[in-house]
Amino acid sequence: MPEDSMKDPRHARTLLRVTVALLLFIHGAYRLLVHGVPDFGGFLASKGFPFGVALAGAITAFELAGGTLLAWGRLVRPVACGFMANLLAGILLVHGREGWFVVGGGRNGVEYSVLLIACLASLCLGEAQAAAPQG
Prior knowledge:
Elements: H1 9-35, H2 37-46, H3 52-72, H4 76-95, H5 111-131
């Protein structure tokens, strides 16, 4: 790869996009294969959400499909916005009451979700800049 191509900001965006996509895809895959959509649905129902299991299935499907689309660079802005909403809901329902730290100074806090939201917002901004007319 020529040295000039290493300065192309698209490479940094691609690395960020694919990494975030893999993290979010794995989260949904783990729930589907190990943890269980019905357990997540029960949690959502206990928080007052109607059709908890169906909602859990839809969220899991979004994590899998959205992660795939994001990795492929398709529909980046709408998928990223969906993931940001998903992560914000997780902060409000679970992580917010646990504090800031995921490990160390606490457990299960918001810091990882905030980092992912910032990464997703950066991807949205990068897509908007890439789509803007150059002049």
